[in-house]
Structure formats: structure tokens, C-alpha cells
Write a structure and sequence with these properties.
Oligomer: homodimer
Strand content of chain A: 15-25%
CATH topology of the largest domain in chain A: Dna Topoisomerase Vi A Subunit, Chain: A, domain 2
Number of helices of chain A: 14
Number of domains of chain A: 2
Distance between the termini of chain A: 30 Å
Structural class of chain A: alpha/beta
Number of strands of chain A: 17
CATH class of the largest domain in chain A: Alpha Beta
Chain lengths: 368, 368
Amino acid sequence: MSESEKKESEIKKSPKKELENIGFKILQQIEKNENPYLEVPIRALSNVCYDEKTKLLKLGEKKAKRYFLNIAHAKKFMQTIIIASKCKELIEENIHTSLRDMFYAVKRTLPDSDENTFDEQNESDAVIEDLEVMLDLLREQLHLNADVRGRVVGKVTILDSGDTIHWDKLGSGGWAIPSNVENIEFKRVDADFCLVVEKNAAWERLNEDKFWKEHNCIIIGAQGQAARGTRRLIKRLSEEFNLPVYVFCDCDAYGWYIYSVIKTGSMNLAHTSEKLATPNAKFIGLTMSDILKYDLKKYTIKATEQDIKRAKELMNYKWFQHPHWQRELQMMINKRYKAELEALTSKGFRFVSENYLPEKIEKQDFLP
Amino acid sequence: MSESEKKESEIKKSPKKELENIGFKILQQIEKNENPYLEVPIRALSNVCYDEKTKLLKLGEKKAKRYFLNIAHAKKFMQTIIIASKCKELIEENIHTSLRDMFYAVKRTLPDSDENTFDEQNESDAVIEDLEVMLDLLREQLHLNADVRGRVVGKVTILDSGDTIHWDKLGSGGWAIPSNVENIEFKRVDADFCLVVEKNAAWERLNEDKFWKEHNCIIIGAQGQAARGTRRLIKRLSEEFNLPVYVFCDCDAYGWYIYSVIKTGSMNLAHTSEKLATPNAKFIGLTMSDILKYDLKKYTIKATEQDIKRAKELMNYKWFQHPHWQRELQMMINKRYKAELEALTSKGFRFVSENYLPEKIEKQDFLP
């Protein structure tokens, strides 16, 4: 099976069956008089690595066993089973819910007791992430929705929950990206590339100028760090339609990290990279070099100690080792300023849509 | 002219002409050899009052004069004229932009000088608010967009920027509410009420259950404090289609304040209340009484000192004087706990859509 076929089959495997298998395995262990256990890949940073080949952050091979008959493991064992069972319920009833809702649904499941099965949401969140890695499924496939944010516009028609939706007939608003885009069916994708914009205000400006019509592209507004639904949508557009992805963020360590999460994945959720990250994504701006090129020095902001510290961290990440990124980061550390993408507005309200972006795209002037 | 006709004519007055009038008046003053001045209503809290009749927070009558030939006023005078002139440019070119973009566009307009006309965005924001009150226009009418957030679904068809958009044909995503809803034309509004939900996750749950179809309503997800575009949309639906508005927030002082901003307006932007606030809005939950009624005590969260302080502040606001609100606030202060709307999920994933909301609506069990 090729890498891409393998990925395909993973996405199509039945989450309900996978959940049931957890139960069956435990039953078998009990029948064999074994101490029941679950095998959970370790999600600590020590088990996170950058895979040079796929250009993705990934989980390593380390696994841990979680035993029922072990005082240190028993509570977590119980919590895992409770969440798995609730997820099965969600799938059977075909409803989706949020992490917060799940926490409240499982907070107390012991009748006639004052003991909580979960005290805080971080406990249920951690167990949900454990299930994701154990089953190699996205939490969305377990019917658990992540934060919802982001909007999209472009010459695309999709089928979602029985509705045919034209992303080019949505006026000034666009389509609100749901937290779960797994079941969206693409009917028409008439685009040469996909532009991801960190800030919704810039997205509105580009939409008003009908940039997507003029340049035949899809524009996604991420509203800060891209939500999982948005990242999965970018990934699907890139992979299924072979679309180049250009990311447009502020010129600071945070903006650049937003880009790197879209491209490479995040360290906290390294197990999701294969499904959520888009390794072909490119950075269209804003760069430190842009500040010189477009004479924006007067519109920069003094970098804080925190900014410099963060830039130094990025310099050490394996996925920022390309000499162009090293140069950009070094410039930021030396010059001690940063800039927002809005700084380009000093050149005119339409400068971004009429000059900056078209020039960058024409010259393929991207950072890797 | 009736109150509503008056409002109508205000909304339809020409922002471009209003901006030009600022210039003409100054020209006249100069021709009469007067010291040119602008008359600006005072936006300080001392000039904010609650109008019992309209149930809105409003600006009082106090005004100040801003003179050109006055060392203390000259910079602000110049800034006001620069922003007014840039807004005229936006209107003439028919483009909209954000407050942040406007700041960068006006930061330095003095050629051959190292002096900034604006050092920080709070200076340009303040001048924009001054212009709003001087001209009695929304900043959106000056083509300045506020933060964009929120999504909507329901049996509604609108016309926006040439596109016909059906809010009931948008799958799981809904329509992303733009920052400016002034020019939206409603073609069909088939709804009995409008439900505003503080949290987008709860909005997704309700949308998945097709609550809007079953109960013939419009559901708006505010994503926290409602953005101006969202507030204006609620106002328009309430006023133009006589729709009752029910607001669903967390049971804490912040959730309740989110409700009060939708209903009464905010203190900082008291001059916008007439255009953005919906005095007929009602609070559907979550209340302290709900916690007792639905036995949610186990799912509450301990209130912080900050929560209690905020609750005490609300108790003193004139628009929270209704005995039912006083009782709720007193309960919160006495019991020292709060709850999120997700606490209702402890009763089942569909409890909100199948029990809680329908029962409240049937019994008209709202807080004023």
C-alpha cells in the first residue's frame, strides 16, 4: 500500500469499531486472567520528533501501558473507558459536541457518590488526546469538535449536510468554517491556489476587492492561530486538489509560528500532523526583508523581550533551519522590531491586494 | 417626524456629505476670521446615562470645542481632520477597512518629517469615535469595520454584494457575519424569534440538531462578546421584523454583561446604543435559579474574587435593577459559584435543544 493509500484507509476506518475493539481487548485480557491494560503512545515532548522526510512533526514510537490493577493507573484507566464509551454513544446517535461539553457529560458518572470521575477539563482533554493517538484517529472522527473559527470564500462548491454551498455566492460574509470538515464533499474547485490570512480584517479587505475572483484562488481567514477545522480544510484542499498554499501573517515570531503550525504541525498535537498539517505550504509574508524592501521601518513596532526570546526558540527548531528563515530570524533579533501585516496599508488601502500579494505570487517570492 | 422615522433618516443620511460639512464649516470660520473649531460631544463616563424611557445607555448633552489655535487642542484638531479626510477617501473609493489599517494609513502624513501624526492606535480610534458622535453615524457608515466574529443560520434569505444567500442552505458552517451588515437586504425572514448564543460550540450543537428548523428561528453564534456587526444584525432583525430576541449565555457576571451589551449598549460606546442595542432582548439563561431547578450544583465553578466584584458592580447598574436580576445577582454573591452553559450537557448531549430551550420558550421563562 502506498503512503497516500495508507493515509486514505486510515481516514476511512470505522471509529466506532475502533472504540469497540478497546472493549473487546479488555474482555479478552480479563478472560485470560490478565491484569487489563491499555497501550497508549507517549505524548510527552520527549517523544516528539521532526521527520525530515515528510517535513512534519510526529510522535515517536514510545508507548506506555496503563493497567487497571495499579493504584497509579486505575483512575486514568477508568477515565479512558468512560470517554471511549461516551464517544461511542456520540457516534451511534450521530451527534457532535465540544470538549467542554464532553467534560460536563463525564464529570460525574458514579451514582450515589460525591467523588468526581473528572475534576477538571484538562483531565478529559488529555484522555481524548490519548484516544486519538491510540486509535490513530482525529478527535473529530470521535465526534468531538474543537474550537470553531475562520471563514472562507472562493470559486468552490461543496456539499455539506445535504446543502449545496457555493463559496463564491456568499456576499461579504463568506462561509463560516465548521469545526468538522471531514464529511464535506467538494463538487467544484476552480482555483489556482489557496491563500490563508492570519487576520479576518485583512480577509474582509481582500474579499471586498474580490481578490479571489481576479486571481482565481480560495481565501481563508484564520482569525489568529488556525483552528483544527480550518487546518484540516487547508490540508484537504492542498492534498485532494494539489493546490499550492500561501500563508500571510504578521512579521513576528507569533505570526511565523502560526504559519509553521499550518505547515508542520504543533508540538502539543504532534500525533495529528499527518491529518492536519500541510507540508507544501509556503510563507508569502510579512518578512523582515519586506520591511526594508517596502520601506516600512517607520511602521514597525519595538520587539519585546518575549518576542526576542520566542524568535530565538524558533531559530533552534529543526523546521526553521532553512538559511532564509535563519536570516529572517537573525534580522529580527538584531534589529529588535516587528511589524503587523497592516503596516502595508501605509502604502494605500488596496496595496496588499493590488501590489504586494500579486507581485509576490508572480515572482514566487516565498519563504519555505 | 416620529422617533422611528427620525432614526431611519439618520441611517440614510449621506456620510460623505456629513464629512464634507466638517470642512465647509471650518472654511466659513476661517473666512470670518474666527479661530477654527470642532464641536465634539464628550464621551467620558460622566456624560453617559441610562435612559429609562428607551432602556438604552446614551450620551448626555455635554459638548466640548476643539480649537485649532490652542496648543492643547491643535494636534487633536489636525488628527480629526486627517481621519475625516481619509474616511471621505474610503467612501469615494467605496472600500472598507479596519481600525488597525486606518491607524497605519494615517500614522505619518507629514512629508519630510520624523514626527508621527499618530503615535498609537488608541489615538486614531478615539478620533474615529469622536467622528461617530459628531456626525451621529456608525463608524461602519464611515467605511471603518470593527472586529469580525459570529455566524448565523435560519430560514432567511438575504441579498449582499449582489449575492443571494440562503441562511438555511449552509450546511454545518452557517454564514460568517461580516463586520458591516448595513447594506444587507432581507428578502425572506421566516422566523418566530432570534436566539443569540454566547458560545459557538453551543451554536454548532443547536445547528446540528436543526433547532432553527424545528422551532422556526434564527440562531446567531456570537463567539463571546458580540461584535458590532453581530449586534447590528440582531438589532435589524428585531426592529425590522419585530422578532423577539433571546440571549443564551453563561451564568456569570461576564455572560450576563454580554447580554446587557446586546440589550442596553456598552458604556464605552454609549453613542452607538441607538443603532446597535436591542432593548427588547430577553435573557433565556443560564441563571442561578436554573442551577437549583436543574440540579446542576455539582457542575458549578467556584466564583473568583473578580467574579464577585463584577457581580456587585452589575447590582448597582440602573439597567440591572429589576428585582429578578437583583435576586439572581444576590444569589451569585451569596453562593459564590457560577456555571457555564455547558453544565446543562450533564443532563444529556441534546438536553439544551430538546428540553431546556423549548421549555423556557414555551413558558416564556425569561429574565428582563
